[in-house]
Specification:
This protein is α+β, with helices and mostly antiparallel strands. It is built from 12 helices and 10 strands. It has helices at about 10-20, 30-40, 40-45, 75-80, 90-100, 130-135, 145, 150-155, 185-195, 205-210, 245-255, 290-305, and strands spanning about 50-55, 65-70, 105-110, 115-125, 160-165, 170-175, 215-220, 230-235, 265-270, 275-285. A hairpin with a 3-residue loop joins strand 3 and strand 4. The longest helix has 14 residues, at about 290-305. Residues about 295-305 have low confidence and may be disordered. Keywords: Prenyltransferase, Transferase. This is Prenyltransferase.
């Protein structure tokens, strides 16, 4: 982040507007400003990140996200400010159920500059992982988490859940898991994809997975299946992993003025129809001690120390 960059509603909106413009995306003031204003007070202390994705589903949008302290209930704020609508769907009860069951370190929110409020992230305290055995006991949790417990146990991923992501727009949930190192090896990646009925990754993605620091699985309330597995890599040079990310995203990587010297996060996944895509996360304000960053990278950093 630039040393002169402002961390207030006007400054962050300006940065979002400029960064989205690198992708020919116009940030809507009517969409973005109400979100920034709703969380104006904690925004000044937040870790702030911008994210772009290479798949067709995200074409024409640009995501921003920032952290919130645990004393700010993001769902309650979003409802009270009209950022999302109250629902009878189980997703509407999920955050409250998690709050009653789990110790929470902090939160985060994610929104699109054209599509609006999307996700809430729940970060558990460092070293105090949640387990799938506990989380699957929640009535509001997607059933696919419990239906696939044998899969998670078999690959050693059931006992260390670091983060949950609740996507209110797509009505899905992500479970970020501290996975054993062997889960990122080619043989295990291929086996896991086959077990849950996903297409085999490309050679490029196999190579990417070998350098991953963690993974997350995506679940919905409409299916008992795991929708996808996504792998993450921390890097200061995203282009080192790809021949091309697409002209617009390549231009964004080379031109974004914020967080130039900070690590980037890149996530890769294969959809059920075989589309392979990547998400690139760059930071407007980076703090290495934040749970937004530390949930996974601590293990791999320790291994390489």
């Amino acid at each position: 982040m630039s040393q002169t960059a402002a961390v207030d509603v006007a400054g962050v909106f300006s940065a979002i507007e400029k960064s989205a413009g690198l992708l020919d995306v116009t940030a809507s003031r009517d969409v973005v400003l109400p979100i920034l204003t709703a969380f104006e007070e904690p925004l000044s202390r937040a870790v702030i990140a911008f994210r772009v994705a290479t798949n067709a589903q995200h074409e024409g949008d640009f995501d921003a996200r920032f952290t919130l302290p645990k004393d700010v209930d993001p769902y309650a704020v979003a409802l009270s400010k009209g950022l999302i609508e109250k629902t009878d769907h189980p997703i509407g009860d999920l955050l409250s159920d998690i709050q009653q069951l789990c110790a929470i370190d902090s939160y985060g929110i994610d929104f699109g500059v054209t599509s609006g409020f999307k996700k809430i992230w729940v970060y558990f305290p460092a070293g105090e992982h949640e387990t799938l055995a506990r989380l699957t006991g929640l009535a509001s949790m997607p059933q696919s988490l419990a239906e696939n417990i044998d899969f998670f146990n078999r690959h050693g991923m059931a006992d260390k859940v670091d983060v949950l992501g609740i996507d209110y727009r797509s009505r899905t949930m992500n479970a970020y898991l501290r996975a054993p190192a062997e889960c990122f090896e080619r043989k295990a990646v291929l086996a896991m994809h086959r077990e849950i009925g996903l297409p085999s990754p490309s050679e490029q993605m196999f190579n990417f997975c070998e350098k991953s620091f963690g993974l997350y699985t995506t679940h919905s309330w409409d299916s008992k299946d795991i929708q996808r597995i996504s792998y993450g890599v921390k890097t200061e040079n995203p282009m080192a992993y790809f021949a091309r990310l697409g002209t617009k995203i390549e231009h964004f990587v080379k031109s974004v003025p914020y967080g130039v010297d900070d690590p980037k996060m890149v996530y890769a996944a294969v959809t059920s129809d075989g589309e392979e895509y990547y998400k690139l996360q760059s930071y407007y304000r980076w703090r290495s001690v934040s749970r937004l960053n530390a949930a996974y990278i601590a293990v791999r950093d320790q291994e390489s120390a």
